[in-house]
Write a structure and sequence with these properties.
The chain is an alpha+beta fold and about 725 residues long. The chain has 2 domains: about 200 residues, no CATH class; about 325 residues, Distorted Sandwich (Beta-galactosidase, Chain A, domain 5), CATH 2.70.98. Helices cover about 30% and strands about 25% of the residues. The strands form 5 sheets. Strands 10, 11, 12, 13, 14, 15, 16, 17, 18, 19, 20, 21 and 22 form a 13-stranded antiparallel beta sheet that branches. Strands 5-6-7-8-9 form a 5-stranded antiparallel beta sheet, with no helix packed on it. The chain is elongated and about 85 Å long.
Amino acid sequence: MDRRKFTKITLAATGAISMPGFITGCNNWPDNSLGGDENLFLNEEDFKRIRRAVDQNEWTEKRFEVLKKNVFLSEDEYYNSHWKQNWRQWTTGQYMKEIALYYRLTGDEFKLDEIKDLLVQEFNLDKIDKPYYNTKKEVSSSLWSWGMIHVNYLWAWDMVKHHQTMEAIKESMHRRLTEMVFQYRRYEDTKIRRLGNTQFWAITYMGLVGLLSGNEEAIEHSLSGKYGFKTVLETKIRDKKFWPEPLAYAYDYVICCMLLLAEASRVNGYDDLYLYESPGGASLKGMVDGLLELSFPNGLLVPCGDGALGAEIAESGELIKYKGTYLYNSPFSRFTNKFELLYKAYKDPKYAWLIQQEQERLCYDVTVWGDNTLTYGIPIEETEVPTFKDRVYPEIGHALISTENSKHYWKGDNVTLHVRNGCSIQYHGHNDQFNIGLFAYGKLIYPDWFRRWEYLAPRASRNNRNKTPFSHYALGHNTVVVDKQNPDYPRHQLVTTKAEINDIFFSEVKSSGSLKYISLEGSVYKGVNQKRTLCITPDYLLDIFECSSDDIHTYDYVLHDEGHFEFDTKLYMKEYNGFTEDYKLQPIDSESKSEGNSWLRKGKKGAIDKSWQGGFRDEEERRVNIYVEGEKGTEIFVSNTPIYAENGWDNVPDDIKQMSKPLLIIRRKCRTTKFIVLHQLANLDNKYKLELKNNDIEIIADDYNDLIEIRGEDILLTSKHLKTPS
């Protein structure tokens, strides 16, 4: 659902307008149980709780009014006014669940026949003598996705299965559920070599079907088996908090699956998985808390891999940037907020605070949970602003460091550095070793960018049209590329037979005065050692990137940002169009004949030995100033890359094809070099300078000088404030 353009139906679905014929007021709830014997996520006590909440709380009543309006839509109307993605069943399942929920709350049966018809259609219940699966064939590797998009079909069935309308299909549904258990057991036995989020979906779905069909073996496999909930917490979680994929996949999918199993266990009286902690100390709550610890002040989870930032086109045709995974106030149409469910389970006042950051009280999850403010929302007893602390997590490969370590972090009036050590993640990873990104006073600087056209590319399903997915490559990140190539130890699309890699190591975070610093060091190119030392203050980032080898190499220091790049130092630049050949890049889309079908467009090239200044600018203001310490033989390149591509280059609107992101490359050809770059983040109209003094660095501003003394692994800051002229 596009937040910026709403149809009338969509506005009604958000509660923003009233529809004729619906009056908020007193509800006449049924005085008898309409179900019982629930096996999944809500039982009769939950329905009583929701009814009381609707009567007592304005925010719950508002969500109930939205439910009523949705139920009166046709399936087509619902689909067209709600989030939709690859599979229609994803949205249809939400529709069925809302009809079933409305029936269980109110006793209104008027649409139960539609649930029945959709179940008959989807599961071939009118052809019950024909097996649902061909068990003589190999199990489909995509069976996981089929299960994911059908969870709400199961939930709807669980809420209405005892109604007389369903009596005619009850036996057929049980038979289909039995077939599903068998097929998903086959998937578990034959298709899982390394457990990723997709395979965990299959394990979760098998457990849910087992609960509905009474198959204890399937339940046991999903909770305690080789790939079950408890086992996963012990064997898969890194740093006791993180699933080994980009955080977006952990939040959208894995935590969603764990919540499904935890809720089903609650309803059925099994172990309390909400409170379960593995022998190694991992838990569901720890995983959720880890997300808070790796979130920028605007609620954005630190981006990486296929979970990095991107753009989407709204219904209005407008391009919306910063499509990512947010803990609150997402500008992206794919809402995945589950914090009502989490607050009900844990009563953690930090989760209550997260709920209150939304513009209105609404937590919505398109994957499964839907409007969990209605189904799981409870009155908030206490809120607590989370206290931010610098974090270094070497196993998952993230460090997040801020100039503001307190509850005030979330106000965004600070500089926060995110750095990746490039530790391999099992799926959806990129070659992002040594990559940096910044949040500075409300702006994302050097954002890690990803275009959906690059997802899992090159893909046979797209005829391998994207042969060189730019965002996967080291060149697509804010790092140093050696010899114009990907690292010798690549991370992107790590196949299941390849060992995982952790060969870049973080230092601890240290401080001196207002300066904080961290370094990371390792070798991802054979024969080349790389070390990046990063120092932040409230005004700047000082970046010292050392590359050393016994042989001569080409070292490219790369920065990606937004707007355009301008030089403040006078420098002769000539046109250059050799980027595609330099980096051996193929077209964005090998079948497209449209203009602009290249990852790196015509740019400019220059040479300079001395220190120089420039910066990234947008239409309104300066974003960041940079000062680069000179070195003989330095070349400079500026180019730009397309900002958006999702379904092939020909399908990108012409006006959006013209939009781009700027790219700066600083190149040196030598054995050893040290890129010393000052990134100025505040007071941008007064450009800072940098001077080397032996092994020390002096930052020169209008009203102060910072002397940074480097003593081995330690750094000492001495600040001298200057008198302001009268």
